[in-house]
User: Fold these one by one.
Assistant:
Number 1:
Amino acid sequence: MEIKKVYGGLDPYAAQRLQENQRAQQDQAVGRQNGAADPLAGDKVALSPEARLLGATMTAANAAPDTRAEKVRTLKEQVQSGTYKPDIKKAAANLIREDIDLIR
């Protein structure tokens, strides 16, 4: 038995993608011939008020000085020198409070 000109393959959508690509190339060629401008040049982005507020908030947060930098530096020095004595009861209370907040 002799099989000639087997087309297709395993991908059932290959022919469809090929047609779409050819159609897109033809559309681009026609647009260039007609002197059409870039079709994406007129696209615009509109942000919702919530998105603008979020952007402004992020900008302000990034621009704000790190107010805890001094506290972090002090704690690092205490840990390195071995003088850091954490309040175990306070740490436990904070952990329990966080767990309760997760349950709610």
Number 2:
Amino acid sequence: MTNLTHLTIKEALTGLKKKDFTVSELTAAHIKATEAARHLNCYITETFDVARKQSKESDARYAKGDGRLLDGIPIAMKDLFCTEGIQTTAASKILKGFKPPYESTVSGNLFRDGAVMLGKANLDEFAMGSSNTTSAYGNVINPWRRKGDDKPLVPGGSSGGSAAAVAARLAMGATGTDTGGSIRQPAAFCGITGIKPTYGRCSRFGVVAFASSLDQPGAFARNTEDCALLLQSMAGFDPKDSTSVNCPVPDYTQFLGQSVKGLKVGMPREYRIDGTSPEIIKLWESGVQMMRDAGAEIVDVSLPHTKYALQTYYVIAPAECSSNLARYDGVRFGLRVEGENLIDMYEKTRAAGFGKEVKRRILIGTYVLSAGYYDAYYNKARRVRKLIWQDFTEAYKKCDVLLTPTAPTAAFAIGDNMQDPVTMYLNDIFTIPASMAGMPGMSLPVGLSSDGLPLGLQLLGRPFDEGTVFKAAHAIEKAANFTALPQTLLSKVA
């Protein structure tokens, strides 16, 4: 039998319909792979019993000829999505043991379509980080290694557990959330594909909030087709989310393989930033040539307020996190550390429950929202954010999609870039602008660095035009023909 964990979602669905194997066999193979790779720390909570139960239900549907969109596909669920009756921690001590009494809309949609959940994937605490090293449950390890160097690398963040699980063949796909690059950057670091849809395309109901005007659920998989299938299931209007947009969800797979002849691809000049790896710049130029060879037209565009995006993000996101995380006080759910009085209990609970990075962002957010600084910082950041959005709107008058690097470097070693939080924040310099503007973005692997690590390119599209992003991404995917595997997997391929 083929190594089941190396199949794509599409290949697995085809095999299941042809009865080449069962969902139970497919799930068992992924459980075995996960047990053998626990050192990567991809999952906070393994849900193997749930997966086996869902597998039997999927097998029964296939036996009746009633297979659904994702029936029997083993996935990882980022531990930011509330799952009814199953621990949801947001990778924080303050939520340890919390079992939601309801299901997030996105996870509910995936289960409706037959997905099988292997576990709750690790992440940076409350999605605050770019390396998956702020989790209260330990670092996630990237399955990739540098040539001749066994030093463990970060998988990117915050959705590092999801990305590493897909890259290590512990899941066929995974959910993620993207606030400032938390799907796209881990996808680039782990050599897989990740899609952040337009803000409002996927419901945020049941997703533990970080920054409500930025957070957006999305998907990880090993190619564009699989991402298209996952997003088709996840997306849709939800009356339980006031920011959900009532917009039809197309069959995203129909855009794959369409000609890009005449498509206008924008090259934002401001993305040539000092400190970017020369290999990344060379890869970007290769991606431009791939699109040109496929018949696309390359257009020079400007996003002049890009240089303010990072600073603006680190005013708005902490401000919203300060507000959202005020609910964790030890009174209603999660951790409680008793004190002499109510205020003392609040202080002790939060001191024990929140990690260093979360505390840092709460303090920044509280400061910029304080009476004396609200106009000077928060309101000014909101005005700059509008200018960033206008830049994208103007650029899309000249082009259909934008092509940029995803991250300024390949994955770095655990422990690097961690002394100075600003250095860590710079990892999201290419992804934050699109998040600020609410635009869809996708990262896909295009090549390897001289150290043998994956490098990704990012495609950004107009609001609710994920279809064009998929079309362009598929053209680059076909031209790049990225087939490299993490070094830790090469000896295990059947």
